[in-house]
Prior knowledge:
Layout: H1 2-7, E1 12-16, H2 22-29, E2 33-38, H3 41-52, E3 60-64, E4 76-81, H4 88-95, E5 99-107, H5 122-140, E6 144-149, E7 155-160
Parallel strand pairs: 1-2, 1-4, 2-3, 4-5
Antiparallel strand pairs: 5-7, 6-7
The structure holds S-adenosylmethionine.
Amino acid sequence: MIKIIKKYNIKSILEIGTANSYSSHIFARYGAKVLSLEKNYKMYNLALKNLINSKLNKNIQVLFKDALLYDTNKKFDMIFIDGSKTNYLKFFQKFQNNLNHKGIIITDNINFHKLKIEEVNRRTKKILLRINEYKEFLKKNKIFKTIFLDVGDGISISKKVK
Ligand SMILES: C[S@@+](CC[C@H](N)C(=O)[O-])C[C@H]1O[C@@H](n2cnc3c(N)ncnc32)[C@H](O)[C@@H]1O
């Protein structure tokens, strides 16, 4: 992620899914301003607590919002999709127009532990199917070119080409 921020000279990020604000801090440490959305109140509060004592808090704004219900006209250099895995496609479609020229959309956990559909329970199967649908959507997308990297739990980097 740090390499990506440097390579693409990322200065502004919309993050979907703050959790404890770990990734927001990494982004801010490398010079980006972060707007992060969190729909879980406990997590939102944990993120706020972590921000209070942080030297980076000027560059991180966390909102208690469900990303699917949040609208903004702001544009970002990077959108980081790290919310519920069954909604990756919806997140992408909702925020793709919030990218600056040459902006990128990063999606985390795209390999989802390399689990196999035939070996998992029904709930996990639903997640895997949705992630697979999302990957197919990215592969066929003519407006964005996507590369898939086998780092961590897998990430995709989608860049506008049209
Ligand atoms: C994997 S964690 C995020 C981790 C964080 N980005 C990091 O790397 O430190 C996923 C978080 O996304 C939140 N989330 C899931 N769906 C969301 C949505 N629709 N809008 C906002 N937050 C969401 C969950 O509550 C959870 O805290």
